[in-house]
Recover the amino acids of this structure.
C-alpha cells in the first residue's frame, strides 16, 4: 500500500506558525507505519518526485497528486494534512435543491477521473484546527485494535429510532440506543462516550450552531453539545447535517473538532453539508452509508478503507434499487468525509477485499 | 400540473400520516429526466441500462426553532417514478 501525506507549506505555516515539530512527527509516523510506503510532500514546495509545485487551488492540487502518481506509481491512500485554508475542499455543484450553495467534498481528491461520486483512492483529512498539538495528536493515535465484541454508544433523534436501530445493529444492541428526547445535553452522562469502540449519532445539526439536536413530540432539544465530550473514545460516525463542517470553526463550536481533540477518538466520519435519510428502514442515504461504514470496520478494515468501500457499496445498492443515482444519493456520496488517520482499525482481523 | 390531483392527494396523505410536521406544507414539484449514468456503472463494473428515466421530486420545506433558538431548515423529498409511484422519501438530518 502506498500512501501520500500532502499539505501546503505556506498555508500550514500561516495556520500553526512553526511546522518543524510537525515535520518531525510526520517523519516518525512514516517510519512507524512500515506496512505502508508513505510519501510526504508539500504541494507548494520543491519535492523528491519531480513535480512542479502548484498554488493553493483544489483542481491544481488534484492534478499535482495525479502527477506524483504518474511518477511514483499508484497512490492507494491520500492523507490531506490541514483544513480548508491549507488544502481547500472542492466546492461542487449541489445536486439537491436545498440551502447549500455547494457541496464541500474531498471526493475529487479520491477519484482519478471526473466521476467524482465514485472514489477509487482512500482519502482522509487531518484538520489543522490552528494547532500543531491537535495535528500531532491525530498522527500519534494508539494503533491498538481488538477482537472483543464491540462496545458502542448511539444517540438518535426519537423520531428516527427505527431507522437508527438498523444502522446501529452491526455494532451494538438496538435497544441500547439513547433517544433524544428524552436525552438532552443537560442529562447527558460523560461516561456514555468513554471506553468505546464506536460512537454513533443520528441527530440534527446546523451550519451556525455548535450543538446537535434531537426531535420528538414537536420539540428539538439540544441532544449533545461540545461540553458533553469528556475523555471520549472510539470511531465517531455522525449523520447530523453539517456534522463535519469545520469552516471557521474551532473545538468550542464544532463537535467534530471537539471529538478529534480527544486522545481516545480514532476518527470522525460525517457530512460537510445538509444530509438526508429515511425515517424508517430500509436504510438509505446517510443511514445506509454509515451502516456500511460500521460493517467494514467490524470486519477489520481500516477507517479509510471502510469509508471508501461503504461509498462503493452505497452506489451499487442505489443503482440496483432504482437503476440510477438520484440527487440525494449523489449528495450523500460527495458530502461524507473522514477526519483522522485512515490507517487505524477497530478490529484486528482484516478481511481480504 | 405535473402530477394529477388523485396522486397528489395520496402523496400528501402519506406525508401527513408519516411526517406530521410537514402536514400543512405545500410541496414544490419538479420533473427531471435522468440520463443513463454509464460512467458510474462502468466504474462499478456494472452493466449500464440504456434508457432515460423520468422522475418527479416533491420538496416539502419548513423552518423550525430548536430549544436554544437556532433555526433549522427541515426538508423532505419525495421521489416518484414515471407512474407517480413513490420510489423513496428522505428527510434532512
Amino acid at each position: 500500500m502506498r500512501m501520500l501525506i500532502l499539505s501546503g507549506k505556506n498555508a500550514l505555516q500561516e495556520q500553526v506558525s512553526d511546522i518543524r515539530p510537525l515535520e518531525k512527527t510526520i517523519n516518525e509516523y512514516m517510519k512507524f507505519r512500515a506496512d505502508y510506503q508513505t510519501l510526504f510532500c508539500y504541494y507548494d514546495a520543491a519535492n523528491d518526485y519531480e513535480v512542479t509545485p502548484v498554488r493553493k487551488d483544489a483542481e491544481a492540487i488534484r492534478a499535482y497528486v495525479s502527477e506524483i502518481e504518474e511518477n511514483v506509481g499508484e497512490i492507494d491512500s491520500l492523507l490531506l494534512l490541514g483544513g480548508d485554508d491549507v488544502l481547500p475542499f472542492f466546492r461542487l455543484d449541489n445536486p439537491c435543491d436545498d440551502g447549500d450553495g455547494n457541496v464541500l467534498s474531498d471526493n475529487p481528491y479520491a477519484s482519478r477521473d471526473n466521476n467524482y461520486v465514485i472514489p477509487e483512492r482512500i482519502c482522509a483529512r487531518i484538520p489543522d484546527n490552528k494547532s500543531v498539538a491537535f495535528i500531532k495528536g491525530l498522527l500519534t493515535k494508539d494503533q491498538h485494535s481488538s477482537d472483543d465484541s464491540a462496545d458502542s454508544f448511539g444517540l438518535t433523534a426519537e423520531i428516527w429510532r427505527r431507522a437508527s436501530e438498523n444502522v446501529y445493529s452491526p455494532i451494538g444492541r438496538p435497544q441500547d440506543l439513547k433517544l433524544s428526547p428524552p436525552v438532552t445535553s443537560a442529562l447527558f452522562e460523560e461516561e456514555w462516550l468513554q471506553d468505546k469502540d464506536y460512537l454513533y449519532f443520528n441527530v440534527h445539526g446546523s451550519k451556525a450552531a455548535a450543538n446537535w439536536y434531537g426531535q420528538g413530540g414537536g420539540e428539538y432539544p439540544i441532544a449533545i453539545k461540545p461540553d458533553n465530550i469528556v475523555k471520549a473514545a472510539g470511531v465517531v460516525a455522525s449523520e447530523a447535517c453539517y456534522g463535519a463542517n469545520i469552516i471557521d470553526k474551532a473545538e468550542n463550536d464544532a463537535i467534530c473538532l471537539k471529538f478529534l481533540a480527544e486522545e481516545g477518538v480514532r476518527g470522525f466520519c460525517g457530512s460537510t453539508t445538509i444530509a438526508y435519510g429515511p425515517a424508517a428502514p430500509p436504510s438509505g442515504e446517510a443511514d445506509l452509508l454509515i451502516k456500511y461504514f460500521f460493517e467494514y470496520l467490524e470486519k477489520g478494515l481500516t477507517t479509510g478503507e471502510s469509508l471508501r468501500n461503504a461509498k462503493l457499496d452505497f452506489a451499487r445498492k442505489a443503482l440496483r434499487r432504482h437503476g440510477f443515482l438520484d440527487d440525494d444519493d449523489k449528495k450523500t456520496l460527495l458530502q461524507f468525509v473522514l477526519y483522522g488517520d485512515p490507517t487505524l482499525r477497530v478490529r484486528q482481523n482484516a478481511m481480504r477485499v | 400540473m405535473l402530477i394529477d390531483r388523485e396522486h397528489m392527494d395520496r402523496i400528501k396523505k402519506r406525508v401527513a400520516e408519516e411526517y406530521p410536521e410537514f402536514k400543512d406544507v405545500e410541496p414544490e414539484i419538479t420533473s427531471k429526466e435522468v440520463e443513463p449514468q454509464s460512467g458510474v456503472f462502468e466504474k462499478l463494473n456494472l452493466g449500464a441500462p440504456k434508457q432515460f428515466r423520468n422522475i418527479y421530486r416533491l420538496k416539502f420545506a419548513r423552518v423550525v426553532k430548536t430549544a436554544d433558538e437556532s433555526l433549522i431548515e427541515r426538508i423532505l423529498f419525495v421521489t416518484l417514478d414515471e407512474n407517480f409511484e413513490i420510489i423513496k422519501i428522505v428527510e434532512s438530518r
In short: Chain B touches chain A at residues 18-19, 21, 28, 30, 34, 36-37, 39-41, 43-44, 46, 49, 53, 55, 57, 59, 64-68, 70-73, 75, 77, 79, 87-93 (CB under 8 Å). The CA atoms of residues 7 and 84 of chain B lie 7 Å apart.
